[in-house]
Amino acid sequence: VNSQVNGVTPEYALVRNYQVADGSFITKQQVDALSRVAVLGATVAQNLFNGDDPLGKTIKINQSNFQVIGVLEAKGGASFSGGFGSQDDVVFVPITTAQRRLFGGARGFGVGQRVSMIYVSAASESQVSTAIAEITAVLRERHKLTYQQDDFTIISQQDILGAFTQITTILTAFLGAIAGISLLVGGIGIMNIMLVSVTERTREIGIRKAVGAKRRDILAQFLVEAIVLSVFGGLGGIGLGWLISQVVNQLKIGTPPLTTLVSAEAILLAVGFSAAVGLFFGIYPATRAASLNPIDALRYE
Description:
The protein has ten helices and six strands. By secondary structure, the chain is an alpha/beta fold. It folds into two domains: about 110 residues, no CATH class; about 120 residues, no CATH class. Helix 6 packs across helix 8 and helix 8 runs antiparallel to helix 9. About 0% of the residues have low confidence.
């Protein structure tokens, strides 16, 4: 099983809002004693033991044996520590054990001996800025930074939310531009088809006008044809999109798996847009057909 392994302190569960479903979390005594114990995320426990009770069992991490002392409740969502994997696909061990036995070895203070990330929880949202300022001052003092730039980065939940908002905005604009271009190309295609239809049915239009059809009747006829043509194209696109969404769901991409949904609201919106495109791009051909002189239309070969 390829899962993320984190060395943590006992306070980690409280700060990160992890709840223990069975057993216990890591204690200070286990941190001090460099104990080979592990707490499993819900996904890891399921993958390794398939529903059996893992407490007291032994697992192997980097060729070292660890005893399972706890299993966490499923949390869902993505983890930002060391990547963007599932928060349930993770194993927690005492930080000292991780530094000495897993990542650093027994000699000196190598890369594994360093702390790569510290999670801090402010008392309230209003105190986040104050907490960041205090943490910055402490870290600069610990790192003996006087005039140099910070050699660390502090990221708050607001920063993460802002980054995701920016990414979402860019993606929305990008996808909107693609959709706009697609609608424009599709609309021009509908207009060309309708113009060809008007040309081929010139005598039919002349006959209809000669027997009493009014201008608005011809206009309505071609507008309805353009709307129907556009809606059928939209329904085809909806069907293709639904099929692709089912394939994505079956492939189970990502951790946790990416889930797609084609909602009734999205279908209605797509049909409405299709009708609007047909109406807009059908106006010119319909107007051209309605404006034909019946005498000239009857003479057309």
